[in-house]
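ok so for the tutorial part 2 we go from a plain amino acid sequence to predicted structure tokens. step 1 is just haveing the sequence, like this:
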Amino acid sequence: MGGAAVEIRQLRYFVAVAEELHFGRAAARLAVVQPAVSQQIGRLERELGVRLLERSSRHVALTGDGERLLIEARSALAAVDRVGAVASELAAGRAGTLRLGTSPGLGERVRRGVARMRAHTPELALVLVDGSVQAHIAALRAGELDLALVRGPVRVRGLRAVELWRDRLHVVLPAAHPDAGAAAVPIGVLAEVTLRMPERSADTALHDAVLAACRAAGFAPSLGRPVRSVEDAMVEIGLGEHGATVVHGWAAEAAGSTSGVAVRPLDPPVQVPGNLLLPGDGGPDCLAALVTAFT
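step 2 — the prediction. this is what the tokens look like for a chain of 295 residues:
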């Protein structure tokens, strides 16, 4: 059931039939012909592998599975409608342009979220603004951004931060390192290597999370040259013996294709939260829709 490709249209047709308990009335409500409703309900049942309705010439009733799906379908459609409403609001209020502050490695999340909003407002344009968390905060306050996706805890008066995800940090070691074959690398290994990280101003969340984890483990790491290019740092680590760096989950996937290095999660886990940052006057419906789009 988890792999089924369910369409929004199918859910709308199912909810209409479930509420009307009559295919003809559901078709009239949806302004479509009755065979189209029957076809889509049959397709939905086949894709899910369950029977949702008991049918006879005079009677339509929900099965137990149908009753369960009805609850989830109503919730899903409500979320989709909220996303559409917010997309329309943004498009109408700002000439159809969503100004979104981004952080490195969030391309797929951005594409997915904007696609969900454009499903209801195709004319919605997008302007991506790269920058630090502090730059995004200043731009939101000045009305120069509508939203921002940022990493790390954020508490700023006048703005709202909603946690949407968590990135587990991974250490990048030379493939020849004794711990390179472990499922997870103990945090204490960072005491034995020259640790290279981005400058704090470039990635405050990662920098602070790693140093806090090291302090909790009872040591301060030996820091090497700052990382300005993750790709270059991984190549350099692969050619050396004692260097290491720590990356977000997105970079860990890219590092996996770099020869000469091993990429492993830290033990105990070290995580960095990802937040949706928006003006504090966003209403509940607006917030719920944006969370739905970008989660």
